[in-house]
Amino acid sequence: MLCLDAWDEKSLLDFVTQAFVAQSVEQGTENPCVGGSIPPEGTRMEIVIDSEPFNFSDYRILAKNHGNVIGAIDLVAGDGGELVIAEIGVDQQYQRQGVAEKMLREAEELARQKGFSRLLSRVSLKNFPSIELHKKLGAKPSHSDPKQFEKIL
After folding, report:
1. Exposure of 108 in the CB half-sphere (CA atoms within 13 A)
2. Contact indicator for 152, 139 with CB cutoff of 8 Å
3. How many CB atoms lie within 10 A of CB 32?
4. CATH number for the domain including 54?
5. pLDDT averaged over consecutive 10-residue blocks of the chain (153 residues)?
6. Strand order across the beta sheet in which 59-65 lies
7. How many domains would you assign to the chain?
8. 54 lies in which domain range?
9. CA distance 117 to 142
10. pTM, whole model, 2 decimals?
11. Which of 30, 108, 121, 122 has the greatest number of C-beta atoms within 10 Å?
């Protein structure tokens, strides 16, 4: 998936913050967590799929904890029957707690429901946790590009 360690920390924070801001604008509320970190509040998490295009994406998957966005995936429909994970981010305080795995599983289900044959993503070769997660979920590196992981649906 477009990899967390391929970004610098500011870029990742900007991506997740953008999801917070979008949520606040949509709800007409001011989100006190924007620009800061979210204190962990237990394990309750909901996954929300927004099928309305957002910026450049065709779909957006949000992970929320107590109503606050803690992770997001933007997906783009490819030309060859694939759904491509364009961006993925998880708030730093929630990393390595299964948030990305739950969002990726939801992305896979969404791809199946929409009739896509493959789910594609790019992973930095230095991002060992992401590589292991992709393998755990059944994705395999492409023969032509080892940074690209592919899950046949």
Report:
1. 16
2. no
3. 11
4. 3.40.630.30
5. 40 55 47 38 63 72 86 91 92 90 93 94 90 94 91 93
6. 46-50, 59-65, 68-77, 82-90, 118-122, 148-152, 140-141
7. 1
8. 4-152
9. 15
10. 0.70
11. 121
